[in-house]
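WARN retry 2 of 3 for item q-0093 after timeout on previous attempt; input resubmitted unchanged.
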Amino acid sequence: MKGLHTKELGELLRRIRKEKSLRLEDIADQNISPATISNIERGVPHVLSGKIEYLMEKLGTDEDEVKRLKAGVAEELKQLELDLLAIESFCDVGEIEEAIEKLNKYDSMSTEHPFAAIVYFLRGKCYVSKGEWEKAKREISSAIRLSGNCHTENIEASSYCLLGIISFFTNELNQAIQFTDKGIQTFVPEGKRSQLLDVLIINKISYLENLNRVGEAFTLVSEIWERKEEIRKPELLLHLYQQRVTLLRKTDHYEEAIEIGTEGLERARMTSEYIRILDLWDAMGSVYLRMDDLENAEVCLDFAVKLKKKINTRHHLYIATLTRCGILYMRKGELERAHLFLEDAIVQGRELKADVYLIDALTIMGDLKVRLGNNNEAILYYQEAIQIAEKCGLKKKKHAILYRLANSYQHVDQKVFQHLLSNMFEVYREMREDGLIRDII
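OK item q-0093 returned
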């Protein structure tokens, strides 16, 4: 029908059917199936025009009546679209309860409505912000199921992005990558949320880096870095800078890491993205720690710790910042100060169940206890760290911690020491450097 988009026409025909209290099955016959009627109402493209005309005839309506309805429905959908945009904006700025309250008025919205998937997605997004993972997954699953109703909104890809984030925060890193890949595959380039593809790619880089799959992560960083000036979202751009600095540090390109980090910090000064600014200062502090430049490392990490006061939300990566502070002050011989930072890192890591970062905090606390001559206490920290590393599938970290554990048992229980030694000690001794410290700093 001229002048009407298929999605718009479908919504009008759905409303006419609903007003007449007709089910899909009431209209379907040998010439038109319930599935075809549903496709027309959902605005699925490529439905034969003859089928649409036949449905209109079955509904007892014509082109003139549909056009009369168009003006009012179009205005209603336009208003609804703006309202949903406002709700998502409330979520983006941290006003989660306000967003949820505004979503409540759509509780009775039909799943056949063209914006139903968006409503489910927004509920899921709000629950992700609150850390209510199970509720979030239920809403997001519904959004994916209904996303065909709003193909160009990129709700399916956005939903997989959220599932990846949930998996990361629940310490399922491989699953986070799988969901993120699904988001990349389902992204519609000509659709809305144009920055979503960059979000997905940068998130994947982060997940790969945490799994120590440095080569894969570096390849993705190099690809997206070529078009970094096209990234309009400051938070996303700073995240990319932080990831590049981290990967350059892990591949021993220290001078380039400092150059890129400094450039990123200059850009960061023009924003109020405090979480990403903290992360970037932390990444720079880590580079200086790797270089054993303790003075500059302290400048960077001290700024990151003080900046945390401006961040009201709990931040997983800050646990890594506290751990690096522990390493810094151990190297400076300020052991009591190191203990305070590591203790704080462990407390926050346990509270947030941030296993990826908790492993490092526990391990370095074990190192500190060894340095203080408390081998029995060190063993407890190492054992907890090994259990978490095993659960997360972080084999490199597990081997690094087993080395420490064997060293500690050498002074406590020779039988256990020999058992550990026979399994891994000689293999790990062949490694030329401490892999765990390299991962952390």
